[in-house]
Structure prediction request, 368 residues.
Amino acid sequence: MTDGMTYAAAGVDTEAGDKAVELMKDAVRRTQGPQVLGGVGGFAGLYDASALTRFRRPLLATSTDGVGTKVAIAQALDVHHTIGFDLVGMVVDDIVVVGAQPLFMTDYIACGKVVPERIADIVRGIAAACEVAGTALVGGETAEHPGLLAPDDYDVAGAATGVVEADRLLGPDRVRSGDVLIGMASSGLHSNGYSLVRAVVKHAGWELDRHVEEFGRTLGEELLEPTRVYARDCLELARDEAAQVHAFTHVTGGGLAANLARVLPAGTVATVDRGSWEVPAVFGTVRDLGGVPQRDLENTLNLGVGMVAIVGQDGVDAALSRLAAQGVPAWVLGTVGDLDEAASGQDLVTGTKGVTAGAVLMTGTYRA
Prediction:
């Protein structure tokens, strides 16, 4: 008589999951202040929201996202402690766009096989990025899916909640003709467009361990560069009255123009000067290796601009000074004006993400 089937025999190792929690819990606890109750391992993360009673009209902001196919690079290199920055950046920096302070975050990891050390590395990275963002990691879930995912495969996702006072809400309602665009440098590709990037690398026959002189490191190291997390810097900038911040846009899927158009009021156009910044080498490499047209590059990758602040004309110097003091490379990217009905052409972007909003006109040529 044979032994009956067990969960372990089906490919799920609950003891490995418990070990992963033990390895990660100290990193998670470092993100948690007195507002977080219950510690690690509860069915639900608990957050003391008493501070919201001090708000006149608190608005809750929420966002959810994943890392996308960048995880394939982490898996190929067997480097897993940085991917958490990509996850946190994609989630919390969407919240700060409206001026909201991210309060807490949760994560979800689906994998083919729980390798405790690997799962712990992923979560340690998430926790480290939460510390940078100033948000608590209050819970998460790791799910083992044998037969659906290969043993070394995984995907990560997360969600966060924040709060903003209603009369401090940032967005299109505050933006006016004459406002100025302040670009903030990305740390590289961030976490969007990797399906294109990976296809280009495969087409070129390049290996991830190839040293690339323009990068000063290997191709894999460049592609795995963590996403810059802007949350704390943006919130400090928004609190600076002299900076006159009216809106932010997070440059993610769709590129600069498409995301910028989302935070402009209808009837306005943001004119972006392509020559106002130097495009990092990795974007030129993707273009040249794949023969990628400029329009596709602009519609897919951030090209060196990870976040944009829209500020009043009199707030430019204060905004640039504040960002410089915080160590964020920033520059004047362009201006906001009234949309000329005659404006048209492939360099004019409108109607993105199904939003009735403004337009973005890309002008000039890039500096390599």
In short: Residues 172-363 form a domain with the Phosphoribosyl-aminoimidazole Synthetase; Chain A, domain 2 fold (CATH 3.90.650.10).
